[in-house]
Amino acid sequence: MRVHVHPIPEIVESDVCVLVDVLRATCTITAALAAGAVGVRPVSTIEEALKHRGKSLLAGERNSRKIEGFDLGNSPLEMRPEIVGGREIVLTTSNGTKVLEKLNCPIVVAASFPNLPAVLSFLKRYEAVHVVCAGDGGRISLEDFLLAGFIARMDEDPRDEARIAAAYASLVGKRVKDEVMRSSHARELSSLGCPKDVDFCTSIGAVNVVPILEDGVFRAVGV
Hints:
By secondary structure, the chain is of the alpha/beta class. The protein has ten helices and twelve strands. The chain has a single domain (2-213), classed as putative 2-phosphosulfolactate phosphatase, CATH 3.90.1560. The longest helix has 13 residues, at 160-172.
């Protein structure tokens, strides 16, 4: 398999793209679907999200804080079955949901550490994938690049970005949580009283769901 790694968002045209926003959009999407949500609709702006008020649950954040007037924040721990089961979630975040505007791909997968084994299993059927990191305001984020590296290890003859990412993932190994805690975003979330979010977002294999974007909505595919 050929794995292309994009450390920061850019326009990508490919058959298969993997969106990575470890803290926290792709984890929240995965957790919501695992908890029984019928779909997660990512949107770029608060205004667009508000158009769905009443028929969907609104979730999201700006500057890592819940948006005033929304039903939920961007926390995977809020995605509980008694709240999201059978509902559509409309999600807007500072970085992750905006990246989708740059992806011209018929298949878009949301990857996180909790569903990493399921995503790796799903991707084995494809010859090439592009892993696009959400980053942080146009800058590389440690946690996204690290996850990209675990995917890049599937490429036996990687190009430079994928080779560097894969080497980083191999160096970290099982110390994912410790490494992610070194990131600026993880430290910010902890300072805001969300250390358990970071715990969930670094729990490899906690969820066996692969979110696939279909007609603008992420829906669950079991593996």
